[in-house]
Amino acid sequence: MAATQPITALDLAPYNIKKIASGKVREIFELDSFTLLFVATDRISAYDVILTNGIPGKGELLTQLSAQWFSLITSKLPSLRNHLVGTDVPDVLKGTDVESALRGRSMQVRRYEIVPLESIVRGYITGSAWKEYQQHGTVHGTSVPAGLQESQRFEKALWTPSTKAEAGEHDENISPDRAAELVGPKVAKKIEEVSLAVYELARDYAAERGIIIADTKFEFGLIPETGEVVLVDEVLTPDSSRFWPKEKYEVGKGQESFDKQFLRDWLVREGLKGKEGVEMSGEVVAETGRRYREAFGRLFGG
Ligand code: ATP
Ligand code: MG
Protein backbone atom coordinates (compact mmCIF):
# COMPACT_ATOMS: atom_id res chain seq x y z
CA MET A 1 0.00 0.00 0.00
CA ALA A 2 1.27 3.40 -0.95
CA ALA A 3 0.35 4.85 2.41
CA THR A 4 2.59 2.56 4.41
CA GLN A 5 5.46 1.85 2.05
CA PRO A 6 5.80 4.37 -0.77
CA ILE A 7 9.06 3.29 -2.32
CA THR A 8 7.82 3.20 -5.87
CA ALA A 9 7.75 6.34 -7.97
CA LEU A 10 5.03 8.70 -6.87
CA ASP A 11 2.95 10.28 -9.61
CA LEU A 12 1.25 13.62 -8.99
CA ALA A 13 0.55 14.32 -12.67
CA PRO A 14 -3.18 13.65 -12.12
CA TYR A 15 -3.09 16.72 -9.88
CA ASN A 16 -1.19 18.78 -12.45
CA ILE A 17 1.97 18.67 -10.39
CA LYS A 18 5.08 18.05 -12.41
CA LYS A 19 7.89 15.81 -11.14
CA ILE A 20 11.27 17.39 -11.73
CA ALA A 21 13.59 14.79 -10.26
CA SER A 22 13.73 11.43 -8.61
CA GLY A 23 16.82 10.75 -6.50
CA LYS A 24 17.83 7.58 -4.74
CA VAL A 25 15.54 8.44 -1.85
CA ARG A 26 13.54 11.58 -2.63
CA GLU A 27 11.08 12.65 -5.31
CA ILE A 28 10.93 16.32 -6.19
CA PHE A 29 7.92 18.11 -7.64
CA GLU A 30 7.25 21.63 -8.78
CA LEU A 31 4.28 23.21 -6.97
CA ASP A 32 4.72 26.58 -8.65
CA SER A 33 7.64 28.58 -9.98
CA PHE A 34 8.75 29.54 -6.46
CA THR A 35 7.99 26.38 -4.54
CA LEU A 36 9.14 22.77 -4.68
CA LEU A 37 7.74 19.73 -2.93
CA PHE A 38 10.26 17.22 -1.59
CA VAL A 39 8.88 13.82 -0.74
CA ALA A 40 11.17 11.48 1.18
CA THR A 41 10.27 7.89 0.34
CA ASP A 42 11.11 4.84 2.45
CA ARG A 43 13.76 3.77 -0.08
CA ILE A 44 17.21 2.95 1.21
CA SER A 45 20.49 2.49 -0.60
CA ALA A 46 23.68 0.77 0.42
CA TYR A 47 26.91 0.49 -1.52
CA ASP A 48 25.28 2.75 -4.15
CA VAL A 49 22.41 0.39 -4.89
CA ILE A 50 18.75 0.91 -3.95
CA LEU A 51 17.16 -2.07 -2.23
CA THR A 52 13.87 -3.31 -3.72
CA ASN A 53 11.92 -2.94 -0.49
CA GLY A 54 11.94 -0.01 1.89
CA ILE A 55 12.19 0.81 5.58
CA PRO A 56 8.68 1.74 6.75
CA GLY A 57 8.74 5.15 8.40
CA LYS A 58 12.19 6.16 7.14
CA GLY A 59 10.95 8.91 4.82
CA GLU A 60 8.95 10.49 7.59
CA LEU A 61 11.84 10.29 10.04
CA LEU A 62 14.24 11.93 7.60
CA THR A 63 11.78 14.71 6.83
CA GLN A 64 11.12 15.40 10.50
CA LEU A 65 14.83 15.24 11.29
CA SER A 66 15.65 17.89 8.69
CA ALA A 67 12.79 20.05 9.95
CA GLN A 68 14.01 19.79 13.55
CA TRP A 69 17.54 20.70 12.52
CA PHE A 70 16.33 23.68 10.51
CA SER A 71 14.52 24.94 13.55
CA LEU A 72 17.51 24.40 15.86
CA ILE A 73 19.85 26.08 13.36
CA THR A 74 17.57 29.09 13.08
CA SER A 75 17.43 29.43 16.86
CA LYS A 76 21.25 29.42 17.10
CA LEU A 77 22.15 31.21 13.87
CA PRO A 78 19.18 33.50 13.18
CA SER A 79 20.92 35.32 10.35
CA LEU A 80 21.15 32.17 8.21
CA ARG A 81 18.06 31.64 6.06
CA ASN A 82 16.90 28.21 4.95
CA HIS A 83 14.51 27.02 2.26
CA LEU A 84 11.89 25.31 4.42
CA VAL A 85 8.35 26.63 4.02
CA GLY A 86 6.65 23.84 5.96
CA THR A 87 6.00 20.13 6.30
CA ASP A 88 2.26 20.26 5.68
CA VAL A 89 0.78 18.44 2.70
CA PRO A 90 0.17 21.16 0.09
CA ASP A 91 -3.39 22.50 0.14
CA VAL A 92 -4.06 21.32 -3.43
CA LEU A 93 -3.42 17.72 -2.34
CA LYS A 94 -5.44 17.76 0.87
CA GLY A 95 -8.43 15.46 0.68
CA THR A 96 -6.99 13.57 -2.30
CA ASP A 97 -5.99 9.91 -2.58
CA VAL A 98 -2.33 10.77 -2.09
CA GLU A 99 -2.71 12.86 1.05
CA SER A 100 -2.02 10.02 3.47
CA ALA A 101 1.00 8.83 1.46
CA LEU A 102 2.49 12.31 1.68
CA ARG A 103 1.69 13.13 5.29
CA GLY A 104 4.77 13.58 7.47
CA ARG A 105 7.18 12.87 4.66
CA SER A 106 6.81 15.99 2.55
CA MET A 107 8.53 19.30 2.74
CA GLN A 108 7.53 22.42 0.83
CA VAL A 109 10.57 24.53 0.11
CA ARG A 110 11.34 27.83 -1.55
CA ARG A 111 13.08 27.25 -4.85
CA TYR A 112 16.54 28.77 -5.35
CA GLU A 113 19.32 28.83 -7.85
CA ILE A 114 21.71 26.20 -6.46
CA VAL A 115 25.40 26.89 -5.89
CA PRO A 116 27.13 24.06 -7.74
CA LEU A 117 29.13 22.76 -4.78
CA GLU A 118 28.63 20.00 -2.28
CA SER A 119 29.63 21.81 0.88
CA ILE A 120 31.18 19.00 2.88
CA VAL A 121 32.44 19.48 6.41
CA ARG A 122 34.61 16.84 8.01
CA GLY A 123 35.08 16.62 11.77
CA TYR A 124 36.76 13.21 11.65
CA ILE A 125 39.03 11.62 9.08
CA THR A 126 37.29 8.78 7.27
CA GLY A 127 36.02 7.67 3.86
CA SER A 128 37.59 9.28 0.79
CA ALA A 129 39.48 11.77 3.00
CA TRP A 130 41.20 8.92 4.88
CA LYS A 131 42.11 7.24 1.57
CA GLU A 132 43.64 10.42 0.20
CA TYR A 133 45.49 11.08 3.45
CA GLN A 134 47.05 7.63 3.45
CA GLN A 135 48.24 8.07 -0.13
CA HIS A 136 49.30 11.72 -0.18
CA GLY A 137 49.15 13.10 3.38
CA THR A 138 46.51 15.61 2.21
CA VAL A 139 42.74 16.00 2.44
CA HIS A 140 41.10 17.51 -0.66
CA GLY A 141 44.56 18.63 -1.73
CA THR A 142 45.22 20.54 1.50
CA SER A 143 47.93 19.39 3.86
CA VAL A 144 46.84 18.31 7.32
CA PRO A 145 48.95 17.24 10.32
CA ALA A 146 50.99 14.04 9.95
CA GLY A 147 50.33 11.01 12.15
CA LEU A 148 46.54 11.02 12.14
CA GLN A 149 44.84 7.70 12.75
CA GLU A 150 41.77 6.46 10.95
CA SER A 151 38.55 8.02 12.33
CA GLN A 152 40.52 10.50 14.45
CA ARG A 153 38.85 13.80 15.21
CA PHE A 154 40.43 16.81 13.49
CA GLU A 155 41.46 19.50 15.92
CA LYS A 156 39.37 21.89 13.82
CA ALA A 157 36.68 20.72 11.43
CA LEU A 158 37.65 21.07 7.76
CA TRP A 159 35.65 22.50 4.90
CA THR A 160 36.24 20.07 2.04
CA PRO A 161 33.97 20.91 -0.88
CA SER A 162 33.33 18.76 -3.90
CA THR A 163 31.80 19.41 -7.27
CA LYS A 164 28.15 18.55 -7.78
CA ALA A 165 28.27 15.95 -10.51
CA GLU A 166 25.50 15.30 -13.03
CA ALA A 167 23.39 12.18 -12.39
CA GLY A 168 25.48 9.05 -12.88
CA GLU A 169 28.81 10.86 -12.57
CA HIS A 170 30.94 11.00 -9.45
CA ASP A 171 31.50 14.15 -7.40
CA GLU A 172 35.10 15.28 -7.40
CA ASN A 173 36.82 16.37 -4.18
CA ILE A 174 38.30 19.85 -4.64
CA SER A 175 40.31 22.33 -2.61
CA PRO A 176 38.77 25.50 -1.14
CA ASP A 177 40.83 27.46 -3.71
CA ARG A 178 39.28 25.54 -6.56
CA ALA A 179 35.82 26.12 -5.05
CA ALA A 180 36.52 29.86 -5.01
CA GLU A 181 37.42 29.70 -8.70
CA LEU A 182 34.20 27.86 -9.48
CA VAL A 183 31.68 29.98 -7.57
CA GLY A 184 33.59 33.17 -6.81
CA PRO A 185 35.65 33.95 -3.70
CA LYS A 186 32.90 35.79 -1.80
CA VAL A 187 30.29 33.08 -2.13
CA ALA A 188 32.84 30.34 -1.41
CA LYS A 189 34.05 32.10 1.76
CA LYS A 190 30.52 32.67 3.00
CA ILE A 191 29.57 29.04 2.38
CA GLU A 192 32.70 27.86 4.15
CA GLU A 193 31.98 29.99 7.24
CA VAL A 194 28.33 29.08 7.45
CA SER A 195 28.93 25.37 6.83
CA LEU A 196 31.54 25.17 9.57
CA ALA A 197 29.30 27.05 12.00
CA VAL A 198 26.30 24.80 11.32
CA TYR A 199 28.40 21.64 11.49
CA GLU A 200 29.99 22.65 14.78
CA LEU A 201 26.72 23.42 16.48
CA ALA A 202 25.17 20.18 15.22
CA ARG A 203 28.23 18.12 16.14
CA ASP A 204 28.17 19.43 19.70
CA TYR A 205 24.41 19.01 20.03
CA ALA A 206 24.57 15.42 18.74
CA ALA A 207 27.64 14.48 20.80
CA GLU A 208 25.76 15.36 23.99
CA ARG A 209 23.10 12.89 22.84
CA GLY A 210 25.36 9.97 21.97
CA ILE A 211 25.84 10.49 18.25
CA ILE A 212 29.04 11.45 16.51
CA ILE A 213 28.42 13.34 13.28
CA ALA A 214 31.68 12.49 11.57
CA ASP A 215 31.01 14.53 8.47
CA THR A 216 28.14 16.03 6.56
CA LYS A 217 27.16 17.64 3.29
CA PHE A 218 25.21 20.85 2.85
CA GLU A 219 23.89 22.57 -0.24
CA PHE A 220 23.20 26.25 -0.66
CA GLY A 221 20.94 28.38 -2.75
CA LEU A 222 21.93 31.84 -3.86
CA ILE A 223 19.94 35.03 -4.07
CA PRO A 224 21.64 36.60 -7.08
CA GLU A 225 20.64 40.20 -6.33
CA THR A 226 22.16 40.25 -2.85
CA GLY A 227 24.69 37.42 -2.96
CA GLU A 228 23.06 35.99 0.17
CA VAL A 229 23.35 32.22 0.61
CA VAL A 230 20.45 30.10 1.85
CA LEU A 231 20.70 26.64 3.40
CA VAL A 232 18.73 24.17 1.23
CA ASP A 233 18.22 20.43 0.67
CA GLU A 234 18.02 17.98 3.57
CA VAL A 235 20.26 18.76 6.52
CA LEU A 236 22.14 16.59 8.99
CA THR A 237 20.30 13.37 8.27
CA PRO A 238 22.05 10.00 8.21
CA ASP A 239 21.56 10.11 4.42
CA SER A 240 23.61 13.31 4.08
CA SER A 241 26.04 12.66 6.93
CA ARG A 242 27.97 9.92 8.68
CA PHE A 243 26.40 9.18 12.06
CA TRP A 244 28.41 6.96 14.42
CA PRO A 245 27.20 5.59 17.74
CA LYS A 246 29.36 7.39 20.30
CA GLU A 247 29.57 4.43 22.68
CA LYS A 248 31.27 2.30 20.00
CA TYR A 249 33.73 4.92 18.80
CA GLU A 250 37.33 3.76 18.75
CA VAL A 251 40.09 5.60 16.95
CA GLY A 252 42.41 3.68 14.60
CA LYS A 253 39.77 1.77 12.62
CA GLY A 254 36.67 2.22 10.51
CA GLN A 255 33.50 2.95 12.53
CA GLU A 256 30.06 1.41 12.49
CA SER A 257 27.38 3.40 10.74
CA PHE A 258 24.61 4.24 13.20
CA ASP A 259 21.88 3.49 10.70
CA LYS A 260 23.20 1.29 7.88
CA GLN A 261 25.64 -1.07 9.58
CA PHE A 262 23.18 -3.89 10.07
CA LEU A 263 22.19 -3.73 6.39
CA ARG A 264 25.77 -3.46 5.15
CA ASP A 265 26.95 -6.38 7.28
CA TRP A 266 24.05 -8.49 6.04
CA LEU A 267 24.78 -7.64 2.38
CA VAL A 268 28.43 -8.59 2.79
CA ARG A 269 27.63 -11.78 4.69
CA GLU A 270 25.12 -12.88 2.07
CA GLY A 271 27.44 -12.02 -0.84
CA LEU A 272 24.97 -9.37 -2.04
CA LYS A 273 27.16 -6.29 -1.73
CA GLY A 274 26.69 -4.02 -4.77
CA LYS A 275 24.16 -6.37 -6.42
CA GLU A 276 21.03 -4.88 -8.00
CA GLY A 277 17.52 -6.09 -7.20
CA VAL A 278 18.13 -7.23 -3.63
CA GLU A 279 15.22 -7.52 -1.20
CA MET A 280 16.05 -7.07 2.46
CA SER A 281 14.98 -9.77 4.91
CA GLY A 282 12.32 -8.93 7.48
CA GLU A 283 14.95 -8.85 10.20
CA VAL A 284 17.10 -6.37 8.28
CA VAL A 285 14.10 -4.13 7.67
CA ALA A 286 13.09 -4.25 11.34
CA GLU A 287 16.60 -3.70 12.71
CA THR A 288 17.38 -0.89 10.28
CA GLY A 289 14.08 0.83 11.05
CA ARG A 290 14.91 0.56 14.74
CA ARG A 291 18.27 2.30 14.17
CA TYR A 292 16.67 5.20 12.29
CA ARG A 293 14.09 5.63 15.04
CA GLU A 294 16.79 5.48 17.67
CA ALA A 295 18.90 8.13 15.93
CA PHE A 296 15.89 10.43 15.77
CA GLY A 297 14.96 9.66 19.37
CA ARG A 298 18.43 10.37 20.70
CA LEU A 299 18.57 13.69 18.87
CA PHE A 300 15.09 15.08 19.27
CA GLY A 301 13.22 12.74 21.58
CA GLY A 302 10.20 10.63 20.68
P1 ATP B 1 20.99 11.36 -4.54
O1 ATP B 1 19.84 10.45 -4.40
O2 ATP B 1 22.27 10.69 -4.82
O3 ATP B 1 21.07 12.37 -3.40
P2 ATP B 1 20.23 13.59 -6.09
O4 ATP B 1 21.06 14.53 -5.28
O5 ATP B 1 20.12 13.80 -7.56
O6 ATP B 1 20.67 12.14 -5.89
P3 ATP B 1 18.09 14.38 -4.43
O7 ATP B 1 19.03 14.58 -3.29
O8 ATP B 1 16.80 13.77 -4.17
O9 ATP B 1 18.75 13.54 -5.54
O10 ATP B 1 17.90 15.74 -5.24
C1 ATP B 1 17.71 16.92 -4.59
C2 ATP B 1 18.02 18.00 -5.60
O11 ATP B 1 17.29 19.18 -5.27
C3 ATP B 1 19.49 18.38 -5.58
O12 ATP B 1 19.95 18.52 -6.88
C4 ATP B 1 19.50 19.72 -4.84
O13 ATP B 1 20.53 20.53 -5.30
C5 ATP B 1 18.15 20.28 -5.23
N1 ATP B 1 17.60 21.24 -4.26
C6 ATP B 1 17.57 21.14 -2.91
N2 ATP B 1 16.94 22.21 -2.35
C7 ATP B 1 16.56 23.01 -3.38
C8 ATP B 1 15.91 24.29 -3.45
N3 ATP B 1 15.48 24.92 -2.35
N4 ATP B 1 15.72 24.83 -4.68
C9 ATP B 1 16.13 24.19 -5.80
N5 ATP B 1 16.76 23.00 -5.80
C10 ATP B 1 16.98 22.40 -4.60
MG1 MG C 1 21.14 14.56 -3.06
Automatic annotation (TrEMBL):
It is an enzyme of class 6 (ligase). One of its GO terms (cellular component) is cytoplasm. Signal peptide: none annotated. InterPro entries: SAICAR_synt/ADE2_N, SAICAR_synth, SAICAR_synthetase_CS. Pathway: Purine metabolism; IMP biosynthesis via de novo pathway; 5-amino-1-(5-phospho-D-ribosyl)imidazole-4-carboxamide from 5-amino-1-(5-phospho-D-ribosyl)imidazole-4-carboxylate: step 1/2. Keywords: ATP-binding, Ligase, Nucleotide-binding, Purine biosynthesis. SUPFAM superfamilies: SAICAR synthase-like. GO terms for biological process: 'de novo' IMP biosynthetic process. Pfam families: SAICAR_synt. One of its GO terms (molecular function) is ATP binding. Its EC number is 6.3.2.6. The keyword ATP-binding applies. Gene3D superfamilies: ATP-grasp fold, B domain, Phosphorylase Kinase, domain 1. Residues 20-278 form the SAICAR synthetase/ADE2 N-terminal domain. It comes from the Eukaryota. Belongs to the SAICAR synthetase family. HAMAP family: SAICAR_synth. This is Phosphoribosylaminoimidazole-succinocarboxamide synthase. The gene is ADE1.
